[in-house]
Amino acid sequence: MEEFFQQLTNGLAVGAIYALIALGYTMVYGVLKLINFAHGELFTIGSYLGLTLLTSLGLSDVFGPVLAILLLAAMVMGLVAVVGALLERTAYRPLRESPRLSAVVSALGASIFFQNAVMLIYGARLRVYPLGILPRTAVNLFGIYLPLVKLLILFASVAIMTALYLYIHKTRIGTAIRAAAIDQGAARLMGIDVDRVILIVFLIGPALGGAAGLMVGLLYGQINFTMGWVYGLKAFTAAILGGIGNIPGAMVGGILLGVIEAMGAAYISIAWKDAIAFVVLILILIVRPTGLLGERVAEKV
Amino acid sequence: MRKILFFTAAFCLIAATTFGASTIKIGLMAPLTGPWASEGQDMKQIVELLAGELNEHGGLLGKKVEVISADDGGDPKTAALAAQKLVTQDVVGAIGTYGSSITEASQNIYDESKVIQIANGSTAVRLTAKGLKYFFRTSPRDDEQGRVGVQALEKFGYKNVAILHDNTTYAKGLAEEARALLEKKNVNIVFYDALTPGERDYTAILTKMKSARPDGVFFTGYYPECGLLLRQKKEMNWNVPFLGGDANNNPDLIKIAGTDAAEGFYFLSPPVPQDLPSREASDFLKAYKKKYGTTPGSIWAVLSGDGFRVLTAAIKATGSTDSDKVADYLHNKLKNYPGLTGTISFDDKGDRVGEVYRVYRVNAKGEFILQP
């Protein structure tokens, strides 16, 4: 039983990060019906920018660790959001009226471009976040071992996701995003600036991806320029699992995928972990072709 | 028809290398991009350094040596393209490459074109079991590593051992080798499984492994994953000793794990150049440091330098760039050649002869210490 809960917490921590990245895929898909294949690379950029800012600015000496991490997160999210907006402007907006396939090819191209740009700027060797930024204490709850950092990251991602959910559902801009997701033409007729909505989506999605990149750097230490691919693939799967285009779906899908992976590794086979996760995905898609939450919620985004 | 085409192509190739070329071209196939790019970049630097030195001393057979690099991306499909690229550029021989499955994808391409291939990091046993006449390797074989690894595990006195690999050709081969040897010696294998390389979170695996209660863990995969395993194991307060395979001989391991988590980690490796007393090794290290400002990252890159050195030595000794003559010289006449990583001889299969592996331990400062 102890092992079960230990594996559950392992899965939750991994899943929370998948969920954060999945949100970026799902928001873009909701509005543009485009799978932003470069999203995994935005995640990588987030973790590299985090490393650069962390080592060059020395924030934790001035502000103390907690405030420093918050400031760092804000800066990384802001910068990655700018990269995301530039990506939209250069790679996707000129193709807005073209067939959908052109935009997908453009997305793949952007992904290759970003990956190699990171390699050329930072080098091919893997990079490591300095140790000891976050406290390495662990909480022991009834024999279940919970590192404090993992708990914090779990809480942080849940907080970010809740904030996003409220933003989409309670604000004017959020309403505009939802309207554009349902029907761009009608939204435009209602006086909504769809280009601006898309820009906002490309600010929020990449910012969340960047935050996830920073978290991975802080939690696991090791980053390299190819890491976006694995995380991107997993997060994309999570988005599909939860129902792509649907925000709570991405959160549920991400966390579920993390837990399925941990449980599959624990009770079936580690080597078959990914296969198990994908079998579950296929089974869910057979029963619910639009994903777990894809149908129940009428409004998309 | 195909035969005629093949012979015409082969003839053109030989004709071009013997009459047309004003330089002697030597190919380097290395993972210049992709997950092992850091190793590949190092290989390129080393081979270019050695070629530069050779050219300063008058070149080879009165000609300059030209190194042509091709990127295999650490990927079998890309490797096949890289090999084809090198073959069409009329290289005499090709150095490379690192991963066994990557080398395997290129072996037949070189063999069909009669181009000598000297792999530098590919340790899977079966690569030399195919009877390929032009294939050599400066790296040792997995079965030797398995033997030395099992010796070490026995010496540590472990009764219950966990084995973890990463499903690559190399890591799986080594894990199977070690498992077979340990079972013969009545050691319990309490855990045997594979992780997925390239991930960040291995706590699920560690939790499962911990519940099997091993005395020691033998991890046969690569350093990026091993560093994370050591770090996450430390964060779990689990103090089981780890023994790693030779792909862990990389200073980045310490950076990933952190010195405190890496201390006490044992791994198998051919001796690093710093631990070799020979004059060739120290001269090489000095020259490398002078040109690039650091020391080579790992032994595998240095082994590509040895591949270059034996190939050029064979061309010099035979006075010819004919693949058959050079291959014959490497198989039969090259004995105890002073390489950067110790003396080099090849057997009739193209394997390097002699005990190469040593056991290293990471000390409290994160340095790799050769164990007696």
Q: Would you mind describing this structure in some detail?
A:
The complex is a heterodimer of chains A (301) and B (372). Chain A is mainly alpha-helical and 301 residues long. Chain A has a domain at 19-226. Chain A has twelve helices and four strands, in the order αααααβββααααβααα. Chain A has helices at 2-32, 39-57, 59-63, 65-92, 100-122, 148-170, 172-182, 184-189, 194-220, 227-242, 247-267, 273-287; strands at residues 127-128, 138-141, 144-147, 222-223. In chain A, a hairpin with a 2-residue loop joins β2 and β3 (144-147). The mean pLDDT of chain A is 88. Chain B has 372 residues and is an alpha/beta fold. Chain B folds into two domains: 2-140 and 276-344, Response regulator (Rossmann fold, 3-Layer(aba) Sandwich); 143-269, 3-Layer(aba) Sandwich (Rossmann fold), CATH 3.40.50. In chain B, 47% of the residues lie in helices and 17% in strands. Chain B has helices at residues 2-20, 37-56, 76-88, 100-112, 142-156, 169-184, 203-211, 223-235, 252-257, 259-262, 279-292, 299-318, 323-333, and strands at 23-30, 64-71, 93-95, 116-119, 135-137, 160-165, 188-194, 216-219, 242-244, 266-269, 337-339, 342-344, 358-362, 368-370. In chain B, the strands form three sheets. A seven-stranded mixed β-sheet of chain B has the order 7-6-8-9-10-13-14, covered by helices on one side. In chain B, strands 2-1-3-4-5 form a five-stranded parallel β-sheet, with helices on both faces. Chain B has a two-stranded antiparallel ribbon with strand order 11-12. Chain B is globular and about 65 Å long. Classes of the chains: A mainly alpha (301), B alpha/beta (372).
